[in-house]
Amino acid sequence: MEAKSFELHDIVEMKKQHPCGSNAWKIIRMGADIRIKCQGCGHSVMIPRREFEKKMKKVLVKANQE
């Protein structure tokens, strides 16, 4: 399986939808844990990197395209 590439401030799509109805999340912190912020309601969640890589579908918007 190929490693997924993502960077700080990318907007990514997760496999499960957030309860507010949005699927888009912005990466706001990276390290051993990754903090993502919901683009719909603004809620932020910190999850371990391995779990994030497993639950992420794809990058919707690269940080350098904004």
Automatic annotation (TrEMBL):
Question: InterPro entries, per this entry?
Answer: DUF951
Recorded hits in PANTHER family, A to Z, give: DUF951 DOMAIN-CONTAINING PROTEIN, HYPOTHETICAL CYTOSOLIC PROTEIN
Protein name (Swiss-Prot/TrEMBL): DUF951 domain-containing protein
High-level lineage: Bacteria, Bacillati, Bacillota, Bacilli, Bacillales
